[in-house]
Every structure is written in C-alpha cells, then in structure tokens.
Amino acid sequence: ARFYAPTTIFIDEIDSICSRRGTSDEHEASRRVKSELLVQMDGVGGALENDDPSKMVMVLAATNFPWDIDEALRRRLEKRIYIPLPTAKGRAELLKINLREVELDPDISLEEIAGKIEGYSGADITNVCRDASLMAMRRRINGLTPEEIRALSKEELQMPVTKGDFELALKKIAKSVSAADLEKYEKWMAEFGSA
Q: What is the DSSP letter of 22?
C-alpha cells in the first residue's frame, strides 16, 4: 500500500481480526496478527513533515460491534463515525437500487414501501426486495411438477412484482436491529465517537 500510495485500505468486520487482546480464549497466532496490525497502523497515519503528502495511506474499517475492537486499535482509528439506519429517503433509494432490474407492477409506490420498512437496515431491505422479487416466480410454479417447471420459458417466469408480494415479504422478514442495539451504538458513539 505504501509503494502504490496514495492508497485506501478497507477492512470489513475489523472486530473479527482485532478484538480485545488478553482474553482467555485468544490464540497466540491471533495475538501476533493483532500486534502486527497495530505496528503497521502506526506507520500509516498522515504524512510526516518530510513526507510527500501524495504518498498517504488511509485505513478505513467497518464493524457492527465497535465495543469489541481492541482499545489500541480504536486509538489508531482517528475518526469513529456511526452510520445510522437509513432514513425514509434512504430507504426509498435502497429499494430503487435493489429493484433496478426487477419489473414492478405500476401500482407499487416505493415511497409507501419505504414508510413500512422504518427501522430496517440496508441488508434487511435487500432481503425484502429479494424475497418480494421471487414471489411472482413462486406463484407461477406453484403446483407444477419439476418437468412442467423446466418446460416454462424464461418469459413465462418474468412476472411483475406486486404490492402483495411486498406485503408477504414484509410478513416473513423482520427488521434485524432492535431499539436496544441502537441505544448501545449511540452510547458507544457518545463515549468514543468523532464529531
């Protein structure tokens, strides 16, 4: 990364490789990986006085469990930003993104659906869209034998997603983030977050 700088290194689920050190179930190899990551992080920050500012390496990390991150790593991550659940406008945009290649019935209002999925995460919304988009196909193949299903053309399986498909999907897929979870994130951000 330093050789090819300017560079951004993205580490998803950072808590899985850099959880708190010193726990009883920590393996020696895991402890060494964490220590090496911390050593490398020390040299990654901003460019020093004599360094070329265009040679900066930025580390961007994501986690759903910020309270599990090792304290030393938390100190090295200069900015700690909480990304809340999507707003109504954000939910409508996520619906559009997830459904961009799906044929929708004209009576569907994405804004109305966005209102019904308040408190849903981005992943929850993706699951709702996936499930709703499969409902039409499930209706079409219901009661058919495997041979009859194989005989269907691609066009016969491409039916528009209806409002009812979304209602059924919403009954099956609940939001995955509780009010207690949100409170825990906000409490952590109040203590360790960046403005």
A: T
Instruction: Name beta bridge partners: 57.
Output: 7
- Taking the C-alpha atoms of residue 58 and residue 38, their distance in angstroms, rounded to an integer, is 14
Query: Each residue of 29-47: b (16+ CB within 10 Å) or e?
Result: eeeeebeebbeebeebeee
pLDDT beneath 70: ranges in the chain: 21-26, 43-53, 195
Distances, alpha carbon 123 to alpha carbons 94, 126, 155, 159, 188, in Å = 10, 5, 29, 24, 22
DSSP reduced 3-state for 19: strand
Produce one character per residue of 86-100: b if its CB has 16 or more CB atoms within 10 Å, e if not.
Answer: beeeebbebbeebbe
Q: What one-character DSSP code corresponds to residue 109?
A: -
The predicted-structure confidence for 86-135, as pLDDT tens digits, reads as follows 999 999 999 999 999 888 999 999 999 999 999 999 999 999 999 999 88
Give the sign of the dihedral formed by CA 123, CA 126, CA 132, CA 138.
negative
Q: What are the chain's domains?
A: 7-83 (3.40.50.300), 88-176 (1.10.8.60)
Query: What's the one-letter identity of residue 110?
Result: L
Whole-prediction pTM: 0.75
CA torsion sign for 63, 69, 73, 79 is positive
Pair of tokens at residue 103: 């044929």
